[in-house]
Batch of 3 targets.
Target 1
Amino acid sequence: ARTLRGLQWLMYGEAIGDVLYVFDALEAACVDLRTESYRNRLAALAKIVGDDGGAPIRRVETATSATAKQAMLRQLKGANKEGIVFKRHLAPHSAGRPAEPWALIESGLP
């Protein structure tokens, strides 16, 4: 959770070194977003975090079209990255390990 302007913001992500890479917003200005679509939660996340690539909290890159997703998968595979997460943009948040409606491909991208 992060407090900005006296309000709580809850983001979901992964800390790597001194940087928190976030990919979902669960609360924005004390409003629960878990039932909102992932598309709406991404929009809220953009407002919370912005696009400062040097900040200690950074949004992960998101691809929305099939072509962009395929290109990102090739790029990550070429860079020997750990994995990629695919989410349905109309899906609400689902707590726990990745499962339907999203898929996780880790270690050894296809």
Target 2
Amino acid sequence: LGFKYYHKTAYKREALAAAKSLNENTPDEQFLAVLRNTAIQAYGRERVASVDGKEWAGLLEKAIDHKRSVKEFEQLFNNDLYKNTALKVNKAQLKDFIIYWINHHATRLA
């Protein structure tokens, strides 16, 4: 049982290591890549890869039973990241959210 659990949660340990390495100089895209890659590992590419905007934000919140809001980062999830406008994102708060999400997301979504 211990080995199965350890193997099954390896993606979480890898994601946490990646998230903890993020800093103020890390591009916003990398923050989002850590989050999306973790979600893909947890829920599968078919369910996650095509989701964006409000649907992506909703999936993230649902996965942690709405215990934290993604409202402050919603502009990132709405593809504003790829527009030429400068985004004001508190990277420390985003990193904190990502680490929280990795640690607390449900293993299955209804």
Target 3
Amino acid sequence: GNVSSDVVDFLIDNFRHDARLAFEYEKHRDDWKIKAPIFNLISKQDPLTKNYQKRHLTWKKCAHTLNLFVLEEGRHYFVGEKPKLVAQTIQHVHENISVLKNVDGSTTYWS
């Protein structure tokens, strides 16, 4: 259906506001990193995540431990399209990863 111009204006204004806040935050943030590991789950078939091998490394500025998991199937909305595969992957990670390699090469023991 049609969306009223008021709703469109509201959404655009909020998007611009959030984008400005995110830019200012990144511009002035200190050199801190979260202690929890980051798990990046992507699909090889996602046309929007080309160069994922390189792009996921941008998260290393935020965390000491960074992990990339790649699904062979599923497009951009694979979480909704392949929920069983996603759940199985998360369960596998949860059950099998106890030692993680940090971005700097050191080891974190996760339980």
